[in-house]
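How a chain folds remains the central question behind the approach discussed here. The record that follows shows the chain in one-letter code together with its fold in token form:
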Amino acid sequence: MLLTIHDANLQKVAFVDNSKQNTLNYYNDTWSRDMPTGSSTFEFTVFKKAIQSDTASSKAYQHLNERAWVSFRHNGRTYLFNVMSVEENEQTIKCYCENLNLELINELVNPYKATRAMTFSEYCKEMALLNYAHLTIGINEISDQQRVIEWTTQETKLARLLNLAKQFNAEIEFDTQLKADSTIKKFTVNIYHEHDDTHQGVGRIRNDVVLKYGKNISSITRKVDKTGIFNTIRPTGKMPTVEVEDSGERHLSSQRVKNADGSITETIIRTAPDGTKSKTIVHTKVTKLADKTRITTTTTTRSDGSIEQTVTTSKKGGPSNTERRIIKPPKKKEKENEPEKEVLTIENLGDWSIKNERGELEFYQRGQQLYAPLSMQLYPSTFTSATAEDQWTRRDFDFDTDEPNELRRLAYLKLKQHCYPAITYEVDGFVDVEIGDTVQIYDDGFSPALIVKARVTEQKISFTNPASNKTTFANFKALESKLSDGIQAAFERLFEASKPYTIKLATDNGVAFKNGQGQTIVTPTLMRGNKVINSGWRWVVDGEIKATSPSHIVRASDVNQKMVLTVSAWIDNKEVASEQLTLINASDGLQGQKGDAGPKGDPGPKGDKGDKGAIDETQLKEIKTSIDSKADQGLTQQQLNALNEKAGIIQAELEAKASADILDNWIKAYKDFVNANETARAQAEKDLISASQRVSSIAKDLGELSDRWNFIDTYMSSSNEGLVIGKNDGSSSMLFSPNGRISMFSAGVEVMYISQGVIHIENGIFSKTIQIGRFREEQYHLNNDMNVIRYVG
């Protein structure tokens, strides 16, 4: 962003541009814009550095002083700021600027009372609000409205202009335009009708801008409060007054005396038309303290005997404080019966009512009161409608107006504001739009989804630190969804389809192993929002596909210190999500060297005495019996040899017989297999020819489109590429191509195909037999751990 520095005559004297090295640079900048005041401020800090255009006596940064102006362009508009304060040290210059001139900011306007109803522009002319500020009225949406207004105090021109707009229920906007030579081309104030259901006010309705939670905004907080709710209002105003000229002569005289201590005593004598006189004595004393504090003490003594004292404490450049004390109250008078004060009501106005967008009666008038029936039905004054007959909650308000229609308008606005709960929203985010613009905010974090219309009322923008930008919204209004049931259902489907897939991983034995021992089973779950989705899976390690199963076993022996396992979910042969899991295998360190021998241990205690060593008769008989039970060594060996020889002969005979029977069975089984295979092949070819010669009763010309049939767990689709049969979760499918190729897929990966008489399988299991030419390989029926290859002729 380029900042242009102007002198007191608005001539360009320097530039501040962070995109160029040969100019001054700035930081800590904040541009604040506020819709209620129509004004803005700009703060920034500049490094005091030397540039090529500097001379020995003149530096570029010296132009940043209290008499300078700063301008820049943003979104096609020029913004001009008056440097109001400068804070400088050896390295930097900090400037605070406002977008208005001193005439508006500092010039005071005296109290004023209108003698007739006047327009906005007439008030500006009568109070000279625009003349000396070189300000003109541009857009004026309230040019036909008139008011009778009175101001009783002094205030700045800017404050009076803002108050005038408030009295006319209007919003204002300042617009500055510069010529090519940087002089003022136009300085205008635009007046808009205040924002309501039929008027936009300042800014535009931005239907092209939609703020979404998680994209443009961080969060939305909604608060519903029915604390101050009511649904009936009785408004009152002041009766119109008619001025009557007094027939008597009124006289006032005063005498002012300066006392020796510097104080002043003023005596005021008033003479009423009936000749009665009243005297008021005002004594004023001013005391100045050493710290430049000024204390003004005013003591007023009136004819009714009352004494009042006012003490005002002020300090130059600081706020003032005023304290009022009653030193002596007035003398008591006999109480007189005063007539009841007459007030203005809306009773004499005609019937009045307002219906909402659905044609329901929302507001109406009866007598001196306005009613909100829908509010009463929703929020009755008692517990339920059956509790009592009177369900209305009433409030009485007094308004500062003497016109009945204006009184009813003010009462309607007050009732409309309080007949329903106050709903407030807080939005955290930023959007690059103009002050007063109305945008829509969408947040699906609420149920149903929240759609809100809001206005931009305040902005803080930093050109050097966009992350700190902030937009404040107001005038929130919740919008109802106008979608039909069908469109709403389609919207819900699209909304669900927009949710991302996520994978949650679970293990039965953790992700850490020790010394290559153990294993863990990893089980994935595919989620979409809070729903579990069926899918196929692919397990990858170092770019190599390890499996396509619903779960995967990781053994510690396969993990070399660390393994990164990637699991991906597949639906309809497309990867929809992936997740990684890191597993580790920790090993003990190398075995250390053998240590030195330890010291010799202490001898153990002496054992008990053992049994007698001699053999008695009983033990001798047991030994003899054991020896007699043993067979003769030579005889036993001969018997064993004979038995082994006989067993070998029998085994050979059995094997020979079994081999002959098995061979006959093998030959018979093979002939049956060949015959069955040939029969099935012939039948399949016959069926294909028959199907090709048939005429379908229904023909579909799909062209480049496809046709699909969905079942409970499976689906079938046809297109120009062929016929696909598979599972709905995408775990497996088959493609029958017109080119003569049959392919099988697992989780989107082709694992087998048949083409041109060739079957290609990366990993396959043949449970019984496989024949190539005249040789057939099969499992040996006597030993499942052995395969045999036989020549079958």
Q: What stands out?
A: Residues 242-250, 694-699 have pLDDT under 50 and may be disordered. The CA atoms of residues 96 and 374 lie 51 Å apart.
